[in-house]
Amino acid sequence: MIKFINTTKRYGNTYALNNVSFDIEMGEFVFFVGASGAGKSSIMKLIYREEVATSGTVLVGRVDISQLKPDQVPKLRRRMGIVFQDFKLLPGQTVFDNVAYVLRALGVGPTETRKRVLGALKVVGLIDKVDAFVEELSGGEQQRVGIARAIVNGPSLVIADEPTGNLDPTNSMEIMNLLEQINQRGTTILISTHNHQIVNQMRKRVITMQNGELIRDVHQGVYE
Hints:
The protein is α/β, with parallel strands linked by helices. It has a single domain (27-41, 74-218), classed as 3-Layer(aba) Sandwich (Rossmann fold), CATH 3.40.50.300. The protein is built from 7 helices and 10 strands. The longest helix has 16 residues, at 169-184. The two termini are 27 Å apart.
């Protein structure tokens, strides 16, 4: 599903990624770990085409996304759900409106939008908060809204960049368990994190980055 082949990302003389190669199959659950600046967020940004590789290849679904024209990038992102550390919710809007935003932008009709939004909120356990404003929610609940928004269009891939960075340990594990449930439905999950406790408890595939290089790739691994 995703393949990096000798991929390098450079900013001037600074290497964010240096000759990185790996494969991720459909339906996998993968942690990218490493210290701040190790390169894990750069990998995420290359996958959803916020950044373009300096050299090498990034394949998503057999398409070299480095070659996409700017007007083709939105179509790529429609196949993905993206979860952010700082939630990136729309202030002053309800939970329903935040989750419906993507569907409305795609021109989905109101009846289908309501059906999909309520379905996504049921998955994340927030159906009772549908009419609440996001400012009324806890941090954990706001991240659940972010996950509902990420899955509302039925993506084959969910990318979560430090999704628990602003959460306490209890909420962090609840978010991880929720992402694992989504993975069990067949969705590929990629998570960048520096949280040792979560990674070691989940025992999923762990790709370790250091100074822009891939130094370890272990199935059912831990964050060493």
